[in-house]
Structures are given as structure tokens and as C-alpha cells.
Amino acid sequence: MAVIKPFRGVRPPKQFVKEVASRPYDVLNSEEARKEAEGNEKSLYHIIKPEIDFPVGTDEHEEKVYRKALENFLKFQEKGWLLQDTSEMYYVYAQTMNGKTQYGLVVGAYVDDYMTGKIKKHELTRRDKEEDRMKHVRVNDANIEPVFFAYPDNKELDDIVGRVIKNEAEYDFVSVDGVGHHFWLIGEKDDIERITQIFASFPVLYIADGHHRSAAAALVGAEKAKNNPRHKGDEEYNYFMAVCFPDNQLTIIDYNRLVKDLNGLSPAGFIARLEKNFSVEATGTEIQKPKALHNFSVYLDGKSYSVTAKPGTYDDGDPIAALDVTVTSNLILDDILGIKDLRSDKRIDFVGGIRGLGELKKRVDSGEMALAIALYPVSMKQLMDIADSGNIMPPKTTWFEPKLRSGLVIHKLS
User: Fold this and answer.
1) In 3-state terms, what secondary structure has residue 170?
2) DSSP string covering 30-75, please?
């Protein structure tokens, strides 16, 4: 059973929300954050990317930078740019992109569920990234940014959310990237109790996005429990903030590959090698969207090809072997191009499909890259099957859009 609880969120008053809210810390670099926060002292970047308050080039992992995050978090509360709700609530956070709206519930997820595997992951985490976020959670004694979970769609939860959103939204604005953000409070005791009960009927929850934030939040919670001689189990640090969406509302988009060189092969030589395991068809000079699983678009030397894996080169009975990232990693990147480790090889780059296929073509045509491979997106069913089987996806497999906006609500650990 999945354990969740409501919490007293720390949030911006309506009139400040658009100034406070920001993109997640990990989708932009320090320079981009500095530029986006320019002239806006209320921007959450001052808390989640506090290096922007130091001279350019300051290492974001310096102790003084983490301390600045806390200084700014306290300042935001003193100035009234962030205020804590007086009672425990759940919240509805909806996002609209390209005419489609998805509705998530903001909850306190149970640390122990993460530690015991009831909150299922599908990606490996890197210890250095975990440690960075752990320091950030520790110093602020809060989950400043939410993680992104999925749950099996449930009609009764849909009905509760449907009733809540008939009320006027607490927040309703469009961010600079054109995504609509809508936010409601759930303060009714009966609704809170029923939501908690329904989640308790789910055997597991799934991390969709934010594996490092999930790990950091849970590990800090576990650390606080261990270090508290009076630990009872009902303390706020036993929970961390998550936005949970029904799996049938979520969209995973493609996550594509760019390679710097052809490993000594000519374009014709590369295509000849490709034909051993793939059916290859020339499609002109524009990259096409892959049509189905095991179909790829390959672009090099100004030409595009539709490439389909031959039967026997993949195993649809194995959740990992069936993934197109596995097929391309094994049969193209490793076998033909000699790229063994996607995490560390400098010859490969990854581009989320949100940037469009034009970005792939541009980077190959410019000479920066020699080859682009466009993949068909992974499905939510594949993601959940892999998490259920205890397997881990290869790196850079899933790209969720839209990204959660940070700063709509914060969860204090004490």
C-alpha cells in the first residue's frame, strides 16, 4: 500500500506566483538561470540555483552557495513572498500544453516506501548528483522542488479532482514557454481522507521524472529519523513532496541521439554496416518521425533514412531488450560506432524531442555532429513494466513534457 499524507504547503501569494515560479533546477545551467532571474528578486532561482547571487564562475557546490539558498529561503518568507498554509492539505496541480491538460495531486510521499521499493524507479542515480540535492534539502530543511510520480489511473480520484477544479483556481497562469499552470487547494476533510485511502489501495507508485530529487529527499528523511533519538514515525521529515499523475494522462516524448563521428567509416560504409541488422530505406533530405517501435530515423551527410530493426535483433518478451534505446545502443552505437558507455562517452549527445527533429538536422548539417538517430518514444506501459520487473532503463531513455514548475508549493520537513 502506498502511504501518503497532506501537508501545510509553503506557497507564494497569488499576486507573486508568476514571479516566484521557475523551471526545475536541472533543466538549465547557472548562466541561463542568471539571465531568467535578472531583475526579479522574487525568482525561485535565488533558492534553487543560488550561485546566481555570486560572481560568474562561482562553483555551485561551494558551502557558501548552499548557505545562500537558506538565507534566500528565509528572506522570501520574511518578505511575504512565501507563506505557509495554516492547515494540512492536498493540492491539484494541472498543466496545459498543446491543448492537452494533465491533472496531478501534490502529496507527501512516504520515505519508507522509497527505501523499501514501493516507490519504483526505472533509472540509476549518480551519487554526486544525489549528494548535491541532499545538501540542498538539509540546509533548507525543506523539499523546495517536487518530484514527479505516476499512479495507475483511478476513476474515483478523477472524480474528486473533477469536482475540485470546478472551483476557481488558486493560481492560473501561462509560463514563458507557453505552458499553462493551474493550482487548486484540497482542504475538505472528507476529500483528504478519501484520497489517502485510495492511495493506500495502490501497491506501488512510480517515479516518472526526478530520480535524483527522490533519492535525495528520501535519504535526508531517513537520515533525520536515524539521528533523532525521539523519533516516533509521524514527523514531517518522514514524507517528501511529490506530484502524482494518473498514468493514462502522461506523455513521454522521444529522446534522440547525436554522434560526433562515424568511427572511421564513410557515410556509405556506415549505411552498408547498418543493413546487416536493419532494413534501410532512403527518405530524402528531411528527418522523418519514426512510425512505430523498432523503427528509427537516421540522418547523415544531408540524407535521411527510415531504418527498421529486422526480426530476431530484439526480444519483445524482455522489457529491457525490447526498448529501442537498447536496440540502438547494441546494434548501432556499440557494434558499428564503438560507443560502449552512454554515461561517459564524449562522442555522443542526447536531445529531448521537445527541441524537434530540426535541432538534429541543424547540428549534423553544421558539421558539429556526423549522425543523428531519432527514436520512437517509450510508452508508460514499458516504463511501468521495467520498474515492476526491478530492471533499470539505459541512460537518457525518457523525456517527460511539460516539466513541473517549481515554487508553486514547498514542503517543510519540520
Assistant:
1) coil
2) HHHHHHHTTT-TT-THHHHSGGGGS-TT--TTSHHHHHHHHHHHHH
Average pLDDT over residues 153-158: 98
CATH architecture classification, 255-376: 2-Layer Sandwich (3.30)
Only one residue has cell 562561482, namely: 58
Residue 171 grid cell: 493560481
Give pLDDT, residue 178: 94
Predicted confidence band of residue 127 (pLDDT cuts 50, 70, 90): confident
Cell numbers 532494413 label which residue?
279
Phi, psi values for residue 333, rounded to 5°: -65, -45
Residue labelled with grid coordinates 523525456: 399
- Alpha carbon 148 to its chain's center: 6
Q: How far apart (Å, rounded) are the C-alpha atoms in residues 243 and 93?
A: 8
Cell digits of residue 194: 478519501
pLDDT digits (tens, 9 = 90+) for 8-66: 999 999 999 999 999 999 989 999 999 999 999 999 999 999 999 999 999 999 999 99
- Cite the residue boundaries of each domain of the chain with CATH code 3.30.1760: 255-376
pLDDT above 90 (res 413):
yes
Q: Of all helices (H) and strands (E), which one includes residue 136?
A: helix 127-140
Give the C-alpha separation, 350 to 329, whole Å. Answer: 13
Instruction: State the angle between helix axes of 155-164 and 189-200 in degrees (0 to 180), rounded to the nearest 10.
Output: 160
DSSP state of 19: H
Q: What is the pTM of this model?
A: 0.90
C-beta neighbour count of 366 within 10 angstroms: 8
Alpha-carbon gap, residue 22 to 72, rounded angstroms: 15
Q: How far apart are CA 254 and CA 257, in angstroms?
A: 10
Q: How many residues does the chain have?
A: 414
Q: Does pLDDT of 144 surpass 90?
A: yes
Cis bond before residue 402 (omega within 30° of 0): yes
Query: Mean pLDDT, the chain, as a whole number?
Result: 96
Q: CB of 374 within 8 A of CB of 297?
A: yes
For residue 311, with 0-12 CB atoms within 10 Å meaning exposed, 13-18 middle and 19 or more buried, which class applies?
exposed
Percent above pLDDT 90 for the chain: 92
C-alpha dist (Å) from residue 64 to 190, 217, 357, 412 = 45, 21, 41, 21
